[in-house]
Structures are given as C-alpha cells and as structure tokens.
C-alpha cells in the first residue's frame, strides 16, 4: 500500500520542534526519492529540504546550515523553460543532510508535479540545437 504524501502545513516532531512543510516533491534526478521542503518555526528559522524518511525520523536537523538572504538567492516567481512550460518556484532550500541547495517548484501544466532540483542544475546554461537555443535552463517570467 502506497504511503499518503505529507500534507502542506504545520508538523510537530517529538523532541525536535515545529516545522512548516511545503508538501512532498519529486527529485528531478532520482524520481523515486520524495523530498520534503520545510522551515523551522523556531530559531534559526531556516529553510531545509530532506528525504521524507529522514524528516519523519527527525534525522539531520542541523540548526547550523543557514541560508543567507542575499541578492544571490533565487527569486520566487514564475519561471519558463526553453520549451515554453511555466513553473511556480517557491524558493531555495538547504538539504539538511548534504548541505546542497535545492530549488522547489510546481509545474504549472498537467500532471502539475511538485519538483525539487539541485540549484546548480536549475541555473545551468544549456544548449538545444534542435530548438536553436543556447542559454539558461529556466528564465524568470514574473517575480513575486
């Protein structure tokens, strides 16, 4: 029997703390991996992403991986890919286990998937000769 996805909202982990969960997202490079982006509702109020299993067990809640709020952070908003599909980007999250930055977003087309991609992949330059395109994988269309 398949597990029900974690719902968006406030979750309390025993002995760890209270967190706001954005839902469950599919890792774009490892489709079988469910990632859970969340932020702590107590200091240091940092955003994280972790596997569902590790989140539910309360593993790797670091408290030391702070996401600096600088101009370099990816701006939340609507992004478009080279094929003209739109995505609603929620923002960046630090992987609680590896420290890697992830971008979490929803596809704004069927099947409306919730996705998580390493930030370096989200921002990379791509070349698609069949579309006569060379440039960023995603381009900001509307900022929030």
Profile the largest sheet. Answer: 6 strands, mixed, barrel
Shape verdict: elongated
Number of structural domains: 1
Number of helices: 2
Mean pLDDT across the residues is 78
State the CATH superfamily name.
DUF1653-like domain
| Gyration radius, rounded | 16 Å
**Percent range of helical residues:** under 10%
Main CATH class: Mainly Beta
Question: What report would you give on this structure?
Answer:
The model is unreliable at 60-71 (pLDDT under 50). The strands form two sheets. The protein has a six-stranded mixed beta barrel with strand order 3-4-5-7-8-9. Strand 1 (9-13) and strand 2 (17-21) form a beta hairpin. Helices cover 8% and strands 46% of the residues. It has 144 residues and is mainly β. The protein contains two helices and twelve strands; from the N terminus they run E-E-E-E-E-H-E-E-E-E-H-E-E-E. The longest helix has 6 residues, at 52-57. The protein is elongated. The chain has one domain (9-143): SH3 type barrels (Roll).
Spell out the key features of this protein.
144 residues, mainly beta, SH3 type barrels, 6-stranded mixed beta barrel, two-stranded antiparallel ribbon, 2 helices
């Amino acid at each position: 029997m398949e597990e029900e996805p974690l719902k968006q909202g406030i979750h309390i982990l025993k002995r760890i703390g209270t967190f706001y969960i954005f839902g469950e997202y599919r890792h774009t490079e490892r489709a079988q991996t469910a990632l859970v982006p969340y932020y702590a509702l107590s200091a240091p109020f940092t955003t994280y992403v972790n596997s569902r299993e590790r989140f539910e067990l309360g593993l790797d809640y670091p408290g030391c991986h702070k996401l600096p709020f600088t101009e370099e952070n990816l701006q939340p908003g609507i992004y478009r890919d080279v094929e003209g599909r739109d995505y609603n980007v929620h923002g960046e999250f630090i992987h609680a286990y590896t420290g890697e930055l992830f971008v979490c977003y929803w596809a704004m087309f069927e099947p409306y998937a919730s996705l998580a991609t390493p930030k370096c992949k989200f921002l990379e330059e791509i070349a698609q000769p069949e579309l006569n395109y060379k440039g960023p994988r995603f381009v900001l269309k509307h900022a929030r």
